[in-house]
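WP5 quarterly update. Target: DUF1254 domain-containing protein. Source organism: Paraburkholderia bengalensis. Length: 473 aa.
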Amino acid sequence: MRTWLLSALGACLIMMAPLHASSAQTRITEPYARMVARDAYFWAWPLVNIYNRRKAFEQAPEVGLMNGVLPFAPLNRMSMLHDYIEPDQRWVACPNQDTVYGAGIAALDKTPVVIQVPDFGNRFWVYQIVDLRTDSIAELGKMYGSKPGFYLIAGPNWKGTVPKGIQKVFRSTTGTAFVVPRLFQDDTEQDRRKVQAVIGGIGMYPLAEYDGKVKWRDWTKLPRLVSPTAGNGSGETQWVFPDTFFDELPAVLRDAPPMPGEEARYAEALAVVTAAQKDPALKKAIVDEAGKADAEVVRPLLQFQNFGLPLPYHWSTIDNGAAFGTDYFTRTAVAKSNILVNKARETKYFYQDLDSGGQRLNGANRYTMTFGAGQAPPVSGFWSLTLYDADHFFVENAIKRYSVGTKTRDLRKAADGSVTIYVQPDKPADPAQRANWLPSPAKGDFSLYIRTYGPARAIVQGAWTPPAVRKVQ
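Structure tokens (predicted):
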């Protein structure tokens, strides 16, 4: 009975919401405008983030590599790396060196796009396709039994004819979609060569160019392109700016129509924006409030310890990656700390800022992590443990190792079958430990991050969680 009443009440509120939202003609006070602005800045932060990435991709003159490092392509095109990502990129926090991946932004308000999927054989692969909210709109990968061929991504208002040869159509809820293919590669030169024979068939292009024939490209031969954005020092490139946020918000919300129940939220925010456009003092106030919200609410979410589901030994995780819905807190936290995560069935993530004693991980100390015999992450794909600095980027080191896991073919097991990872800034004195060394910074805080690609049921249901990160005394 209680569930039915709550559902009925929710339905009533959804129907009533537009009738009670503030209109553009309503006189409003500065404190009220600040309250609405602060709230809107938080829940729309990920949408503006992706929208501004779209604007950056729109400036790409051709398919290439931005600064010679990152996939960069005009809208409705895709660019691919041909090896692991270089450690000095700053466009996307928490990059991985487990997969070869690409990126493209589809402007579905202009045209549907065709996605090419080559035959990956037994290699783990997944195409992450998310809307402006960073929610997944497609299931396309090895774990879904997806077949090689052509797929179509269309916007919410497209009513065209699906051409012959398209295996499946995925619909986006927004006019913008982000497409990120990933495929496994291990640390050997032999596997690097094998990958080249596969990735040439990965692609994305406007529907008008579809002819039923696979378009191949040698991704090792891409031009170096100049970044259209300014750097942000050691941290991620800034994509959301408090001083322009409310100027961009109307266009962003047009691209992403409200989900059921969001009508009043949208109307309230847009009413304040309209009022501020007519009142310079009010505009100054909401921009000021956006700056405060950025510093006080959004910025702390870079730290993994400030969000997620708590697990043993101070690890944390999320259960709704790329399926955030109206969980605004988790969506913004993930967008700030490690944007573009996969759905839980595709990749499950575990975050760590603290050692087993609850102290911040820091380069001044040495740590160990031991997976007991048979206790490595249970996956159908592969797993990795990556180390990031305080800004969530790779830490340069002499052996150029930024993660360990399935791809690390020389990881050593102890006599009892366990595997111990040595997390420290200096090379282990014991030669037997060096194969399992994950270099940390010589000073400063850092984080650890476990990815489980193709997680088994034990991971998805929470029966498996990571071991403690123990400080070496």
